[in-house]
Amino acid sequence: MSCGRANEQGAQFCKSCGAKLSQSDNSQQGMNNSASDSDAAFKQNNGYQQYDISENVYVGTTRMTKKEFDKCESIKPITKNLMVAAIITYVIGIISFVVNVIVAGNIFGILDVVIVVGLGLGIQLAKSRACAVALGAYSLFNLIFMMILTGRPGGWLIIICAVYAIIYTFKYQKTWNKYQQTGQL
Ligand SMILES: [Zn+2]
How many whole angstroms from 25 Cα to the centroid of ligand 1? Predict the structure, then answer.
């Protein structure tokens, strides 16, 4: 009803705009399941089933879970960019492992691999802003370290990757926060 997009039968939320689908949109679901109970509560509470003060968000059936949210079409450009940034960290990790640990025999190089891949996982799976910022700090440190070591700056790929990760983890969080407050994407 909100954006005009057709959704699958039985869907609770619009895949396009995130709006809660009303019972009339969802009549195929029937009256005697849990959806009718939550719809009653939905109407009674003027659209919001429950307000979580500690989290400052609305919870319950009036909002998508983060899993459902991640599947929405308008979120995909953000999650795709985060996935690309994460994959770059995995590639950097693999190259770093081969070059520093296997070829050069530097056992401490494993630490670099763990840091980069670990932050990449945090960016991809948790969409973590903290991991993105930490990757930014690490890549700057790496740049300075390479400059001291070789006399010229290095590690550009990881810096670009960190900038991407910072931009898109913050975008993701902003969209999620807005959705929590308005129920719209
Ligand atoms: Zn919609």
Answer: 11
